[in-house]
Amino acid sequence: MTIHEPATDLAPRRDPLHPVLHRVLHPAGWPPWLQVVAIFACARLITTAALLILGGTLTAQSRGGVDPEFFDYSAIWDGDWYRIISYYGYPAQLPVDLSGAVRQNPWAFMPVYPFLVRALVTITGLRWSVAAVGVSLAFGFGAALVIYRIMRLRLPHASALFSVLLFSIGPASFILQMAYAESMQLFLLALALLLLIQRRWAPLFPVVAVMALTRPTGLAFALALGCYWIVRYLRRRSDPFPRRTMLVTGGLVLYSLAMGLAWPAIAWAVTGSLHAYTDTELAWRSGWIGQDELQLFTPWFAAAAMWFANPGGPVVVVVVVALVAAFALSFALPSVRALAIELRLWLASYGLYLLAVFFPQTSLVRLLVPMFPFVGALAAPRSRAYRIGIVVLLQGLQLLWLSVTWGPIQAYWTTP
């Protein structure tokens, strides 16, 4: 007699939650936008932890005072100026010292970011510092998402994500969560570059306008657009440049130029001083080299003389020329040449803009952040050792720079 035992199902029972849990626990299966958000969020958590630790080391002589509240601590330095602008606007009369030289004042800072923060404060009732940090963080996340979109046009998914990681942990990336306008500027700049690459001309006009009144970007972007027009014209046989597009992009060049000059013109109209904006900007440099006039392409030589203990003229020239040459030669690297032509034109134009008008001091690290397209070149090598090494290097430089600028020793030379 054969005994038949009941059949048993040896196959494991499928938990209905298993696919969901699997997806949650394996980030590689997340949608790209969520991976970008996770990378940027983790980077900001590290910065936040560093800020909390640094806050406990401050002394009465520190810019942030002893044991500052986190959000107030995140709104020092330029955040103080943006707070003033939010509540009091801009002075109709430029403040001057006993010698008649223009002193530091709000006209050096553009209005979109502080007015947006003030609007958020009015609507929500949040403290100014909380609202300012929130706005910066929101635009920081937005910038990371747009940068991923830009990099994905030329790079595989993994390399585009790595570009976002490098952007998120760069030496001055902590500024993306401070009460500064940089994160808003970077979002608008990345969006403008993406629209330029996609040749979507109509939305570029409002983006350029807002960007030019957020941070001084309009003139450099106008130069990049002008170079783009020339490149398209020279390549018109292989890449058609219809007359209508030629006229639209030409108008966009002039429009960006006008927007780049709009803020100095507004300062002139309100204060009655033609040089209100440039004189105000020069006031920040007077603490380093005294009062001076704006002379294009001379600030780097003056800075080299100061930083290198006033060496002889030939030494200063060699230092500046070497830096310019190194920057120019970087465009010959295959990883940089692989970037979209629009990105390379922006990098070259912004570099020329900094060379023409900026006096190099410790804020230079922050002012280099708009050169974010370089992260696409840095992300090109796929060696695991290289990628681990550069992540450790950049994260270490960020923590070092954060401690120098936001730490207990805050003198004029530690300005972020």
TrEMBL record:
GO molecular function: alpha-1,6-mannosyltransferase activity; GPI mannosyltransferase activity
Keyword Transmembrane on entry: yes
Cellular component GO terms, alphabetical: mannosyltransferase complex; membrane
Assigned keywords, A-Z: Endoplasmic reticulum, Glycosyltransferase, GPI-anchor biosynthesis, Membrane, Transferase, Transmembrane, Transmembrane helix
Pathway: Glycolipid biosynthesis; glycosylphosphatidylinositol-anchor biosynthesis
Any single GO BP term: GPI anchor biosynthetic process
Keyword Transferase: yes
The protein's name in its UniProt record: Glycosyltransferase RgtA/B/C/D-like domain-containing protein
Family annotation (InterPro entries): PIG-V/Gpi18 (IPR007315)
Subcellular location: Endoplasmic reticulum membrane
Transmembrane intervals: 33-54, 128-151, 157-176, 183-201, 207-231, 252-270, 315-333, 345-365, 385-404
Membrane topology type: Multi-pass membrane protein
